[in-house]
């Protein structure tokens, strides 16, 4: 059994995120796993005998004919688990080529069909049948179908999250933006908020004109230095600093020059 996974931090680091699929197996999954083991042993034993018999009837020596169940039924399990793994990777954002998915579906369908036909042929041609040949073939074909069903049942159960996906809160969204919302026009802000923002921006501008760097200003106004730079750039673009930064008029320059 795997140990439970530790809680991880959310992308913003503001709060721990609940693990979607913790490692501890629950009762339903243990029952599904035991059912998979029991049904698979019985079903593949049936199928192995039938496919071995078909291989012998095809002229393959008995000692080598036991490879037939592995060749036919093995790809069923492999393809089923591969499709589940691809689905998990797709949920994580990995791009899965359509040709890859198509290959595994074709492999699964072809292997299941061959296994069904092999079991049916073996039952159809057996001696001393007490059931009609068609009924005997249907009973024999139940083995690979049952094996596929329980395999899919377990993998599908393991794919369902045990807890809801962690949702980002409003606080997380604010933390993630790095206070960049302060640089946007506050059209919906209250008068008090607008006054506070204007006073803060004026203080930032005063410190900037006094020669302080953005990194020196940032801790004084409790903002990121990048946000401070954006505020200064916005104020300059809006012309708020026109009086302080305006160059002397050309006529004044001529007077000063004498």
Describe the structure in your own words.
This protein has 258 residues and is an all-alpha fold. The protein folds into 2 domains: 27-159, no CATH class; 194-245, Arc Repressor Mutant, subunit A (Orthogonal Bundle). The protein is built from 11 helices and 2 strands, in the order E-E-H-H-H-H-H-H-H-H-H-H-H. The protein has helices at 27-57, 62-65, 67-91, 98-125, 133-159, 170-176, 191-209, 214-221, 225-237, 242-245, 250-257; strands at 8-9, 16-17. The chain has a two-stranded antiparallel ribbon. A hairpin with a 6-residue loop joins strand 1 (8-9) and strand 2 (16-17). Helix 3 packs parallel to helix 5. The longest helix is centred in the first third of the chain and has 31 residues, at 27-57. The radius of gyration is 36 Å and the shape is rod-shaped. The protein starts with 7 loop residues before the first strand and ends with a helix. The chain crosses the membrane at residues 30-51, 63-84, 104-124, 136-158. Residues 164-197 are annotated as: Disordered. Residues 168-197 have a biased composition (Low complexity). It holds the Pfam family HTH_23.
* Strand-pairing-aware structural class: mainly alpha
Overall shape: it is rod-shaped
* Proportion of residues in β-strands: under 5%
Q: How many separate domains make up the residues?
A: 2
* Major β-sheet profile: 2 strands, antiparallel
- Number of E-type strands: 2
Q: Could you spell the SSE succession in H and E letters? A: EEHHHHHHHHHHH
* CA gyration radius, whole angstroms: 36 Å
InterPro entries: WH-like_DNA-bd_sf
Transmembrane segments: 30-51, 63-84, 104-124, 136-158
Keywords: Membrane, Transmembrane, Transmembrane helix
Region (Disordered): 164-197
